[in-house]
Amino acid sequence: MSLQVPMREKANGAGKDTKAVILVGGPSRGTRFRPLSLDVPKPLFDVAGHPIIWHCLTAIAKVPSIQEVVMIGYYDESVFRDFIKDASHEFPNLPIKYLREYEALGTAGGLYHFRDAILKGRPERIFVLNSDMAELFDNKDAEAVILGTRVSDDAATNFGCIVSDSHSRRVLHYVEKPEGHISNLINCGVYLFSVDAIFPSIKTAIKRRTDRPRLVSYPSSENLESSFMADDDDEKKEVLRLEQDILSDLADSKQFFVYETKDFWRQIKTAGSAVPANALYLQKAWQSGSQELAKPSPNLIAPVFIHPTATVDPTAKLGPNVSIGPRAVIGAGARVKDTIVLEDSHIKHDACVLYSIVGWNSTVGAWARVEGTPTPVTSHTTSIIKNGVKVQSITILGKETKVNDEVRVQNCVCLPFKELKRDVSNEVIM
Amino acid sequence: MKALILVGGFGTRLRPLTLTLPKPLVEFANKPMIMHQIEALASVGVKDVVLAVNYRPEIMENRLKEVAETCGINIHFSLESEPLGTAGPLKLAEDILGKDDEPFFVLNSDVTCEFPFQKLVDFHRAHGDEGTICVTKVEEPSKYGVIVHKPSHPSRIDRFVEKPVEFVGNRINAGIYILNTSVLSRIEKNRPTSIEQETFPAIVREGQLHSFDLEGFWMDVGQPKDFLTGTCLYLSSLAKKQPKLLVSPSESYVYGGNVMVDPSAKIGKNCRIGPNVVIGKDCVIGDGVRLQRCTLLPSSKVKDHAWVKSTIVGWNSTVGKWARLENVTVLGDDVTIGDEIYVNGGSVLPHKSIKANVDVPAIIM
Asked: What is the ipTM of this complex?
């Protein structure tokens, strides 16, 4: 999450020539984050002890040239009020502003709609990042830079694929979720644009849109599901998306570069992906010597985050990759591994919770076993095939789930306010 | 008096346990299976017990000789060189079974019940006919051979109906008989013969065979699922008749009763054990362990916070911390289940170490 933007001597103030724009989406988006997003807007969901969007701010705060952070989304203003208040104390040098879209305009559409607010203070460049990502990068003297990372060839088609010149790193070609193999270098959803390049590009795209109908490419059968599930498959005319509508055009310009990161990268799209993301953020914090994390001991395998208000019995064994939320209670002889335990939850004595998310105010009974199936960090998918059926690899208990004593829950997604009295596996529980 | 126990072959139905020990020596409620029968026979004055086997492992001979001494009986091994069915072994042991005119018992080695041999002898002598077979009542007689009595007679058998489609009765052959020595002359030498399908129908035709209703429980424990059910029935019976053989329900870890623990076993803190649990000699149970409906064979170990249900844990095996075993899981000798591992209906062969979940019933070679 480190970054150094080369200082360029410019007229505007103490080198603060960059703004960060975080695209936070809205309540009708992020449906793949259900059932967790039924209760908390995805950007505010706690991963490694902090809201997803906090991790973005932490990365942004390390960039000295940032003059302001602009969040764009279509959640109600009240949703982020408390978060912004807290964040302005934690990041005093980072003014944060939330701009609400009254209708979904698409990622590029939103950016363009608020161009006056973004250009206020005369920034030269803007970082644009999706809230489910938190990594920034060094820039070149370019009009546009995209953060890319390498994934396995079979995973690549689920993302935007970048073909780049191996020497100059210039982007030669960009395709969003291609049907076949194009490249294993994929778009991480973080961009640095010169304001002189991005807004004219969006304007051109809008003009083209009104001049002639959009060319729609139909997905192949292999990709049907991913396109069907995609968050941004809105076909409304006003919707203008950065990935589909702008980037391919930018690739035609000579000044579009890719910055390839070797650092960790994990998109938080589905609810289950919060578990590997939690693991990666915790490992990152652990390597950087964060004081927030719990001290290792025979019953604590680092990295583990325990909120100061949580109660953990000394005979319980936690970790690795565990986050315990505020006021949660972990009973005697309980075992928790690769799991997020959210606020006010209670894991009773001798229970075992592996590869799962325990929703707010939930109870896991004595000797109960709540279990997901680990997926390799590199796989970038949170579903697995079991007995020929695609199921969630991570078990997710929605808000106020009650798992009775000795009950086993494996590879299930449980919607809020359910009581599980019998063993269940490979199911979605409505 | 004399008795013959039909032990038979390799006990493949009870694998993986019988890969390590011959079936008669596998502990059922902390006692070799065959000991339950031998003790019951000895208590009614049986002096000679013939074990009809078609293999003869040394370990069985050595162990049973010790048993014989403690009970004061003679044990004879009768080895079939070729399979002789269920009646052939009787003829093969004619020298012993027919050495006097006293009737003799015949037992299938897989059955467990309360073995009411004294009542059986008394009943047999009272009717004075050639044979008596124990019967038990079952809920679904259509799966078995059902016994039909003569009209207006409470015990004389009229015929056998194999797997009846229509209800003709609910009494089935329990695999325990008492027969007069005259039966031996009905069996041909060296020809495989079925006692159920050939010898008994012949006796029935002469009106010489009676049935005796077994009181209490009865179970064929020849396979793991039934071994566990049979253990539940046996422990429930003990709770009524000999509660001192069980751990007192007032013991803090006992939950739901029917818990038998060898005095040499060690049990940790905050465990919840029961109902229907047998813990063998030198077993070690950690803290916060939950056991129900299971048998732990001698020298096995269940580590802290594990959860075990409907499982047979084999000799010298170890169940890891926070492991969960269920659904008729059977661990052979010296099996290790890793920490946090889940096993659903796994049959694990001896000396295996399990490091990944077994989600669906499987045999782990």
From this structure: 0.75
